[in-house]
Structures are given as structure tokens and as C-alpha cells.
Q: What sequence folds into this?
């Protein structure tokens, strides 16, 4: 039991959301190496340290489905539906992802459910499915030219359920502008909000 109300609403609260036991980190790393992604379907009747156990899902490319105060008559249909979807959705295994960008930009941070051995290194997944997304932050070193487009490419190396090794490349060309209002007006607000939450700056922005 790690719940401690004295840590609420202060700087120390974040420790409640971090993995406490190193053994779970080691297990997660071994699962990624083996190409295994873990989904948890939790129907607790007692306390569960989701922050510790859930580290396996958040590292291997998995997902946590949580059903508090589970009642079969009420929640069984939802559980069955989400189990079925998890089993049948398109999934890749033993995944390695690399993102590149044009001069003037560089990858600074990734956000998502994966394993990353170094801060600027490629990201690895035990598995990745059709419902997952990854946020990538880029840093700007002041060399962009508004007369030249910026280019981005993500390369995803993975194995299909049939055992085929494949690479999926996604390419984006973006215009460079000095008009900050135009850039903000066309921004994907859901994506921006998600990145702010991951960066841990949302309270200061909202407040």
C-alpha cells in the first residue's frame, strides 16, 4: 500500500505514479527484447499498485484497462468487448522506431508506451497496435528558412503475426512560417494538449 494523502497536491505527489520496484523494470525490458507487449485487464476488489505493475504495459507498448468496483452484470459486456478488440486489432511485434527530420530541427523527446535506452536513442516496443500513437518533440536551433519546407520521416520496423519483417515509413512535408498566429491556428489541439500533459506542464498552463 503506497497511497499517502499527505503527498497530494505537492511536488512529491509524482512519486505515487512511478514504479517502485526495480524487478518490474527488469521484467519489462526482457519482454521488449522478446517482442512481447502486455495488456492488463484489472477488475480489482482490493488495492492494486497500478503505477508499479502498470510499468510493464507502459514499457512494452501495452495498455491498461481498469474496471473499478467491477460488477459482472454491469461491466462484463465492456470487458468482453475490450478483450476481443485487443486480441483482433492489427498488431506488430519486436518493433524499432526511428524519426528523422531536416536540417534546423532535431528530435528532442519521445512520449508513449515504449522502451528507450538513451535520451536521444531509437525507441523499442514489444508490440504496437493500430490504437497506439507516439508523440515526438523537436527542438529548433534557429537555422530554418521560411523559403524552404521542413521534412519529417518516421520508420517503423516490425514483425507481423505471420512472421514477416516489414518497414513502414511515414513522410510529412511542412511549410515553414514566421507567422506564429497562423501556426497556432492550424495546430491539432488534442495533440498539443496530450503533449503538454506528458511534459507535466499542464497545471501551470491552465493555472
A:
Amino acid at each position: 500500500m503506497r497511497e499517502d494523502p499527505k503527498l497530494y497536491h505537492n511536488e512529491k505527489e509524482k512519486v505515487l505514479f512511478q514504479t517502485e520496484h526495480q524487478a518490474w523494470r527488469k521484467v519489462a525490458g526482457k519482454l521488449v527484447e522478446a517482442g512481447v507487449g502486455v495488456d492488463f485487464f484489472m477488475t480489482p476488489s482490493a488495492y492494486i499498485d497500478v503505477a508499479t505493475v502498470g510499468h510493464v504495459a507502459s514499457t512494452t507498448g501495452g495498455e491498461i484497462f481498469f474496471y473499478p468496483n467491477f460488477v459482472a452484470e454491469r461491466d462484463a459486456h465492456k470487458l468482453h468487448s475490450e478483450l476481443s478488440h485487443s486480441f483482433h486489432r492489427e498488431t506488430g511485434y519486436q518493433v524499432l522506431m526511428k524519426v528523422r527530420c531536416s536540417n534546423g530541427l532535431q528530435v528532442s523527446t519521445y512520449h508513449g508506451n515504449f522502451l528507450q535506452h538513451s535520451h536521444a536513442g531509437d525507441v523499442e516496443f514489444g508490440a504496437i497496435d493500430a490504437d497506439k500513437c507516439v508523440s515526438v518533440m523537436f527542438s529548433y536551433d534557429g537555422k530554418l528558412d521560411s523559403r524552404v519546407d521542413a521534412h519529417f520521416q518516421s520508420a517503423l520496423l516490425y514483425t507481423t503475426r505471420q512472421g514477416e519483417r516489414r518497414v513502414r515509413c511515414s513522410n510529412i512535408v511542412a511549410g515553414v512560417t514566421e507567422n506564429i498566429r497562423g501556426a497556432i491556428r492550424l495546430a491539432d489541439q488534442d495533440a498539443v494538449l496530450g503533449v503538454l500533459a506528458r511534459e507535466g506542464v499542464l497545471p501551470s498552463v491552465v493555472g
About this structure: The CA atoms of residues 64 and 154 lie 26 Å apart. The radius of gyration is 20 Å.
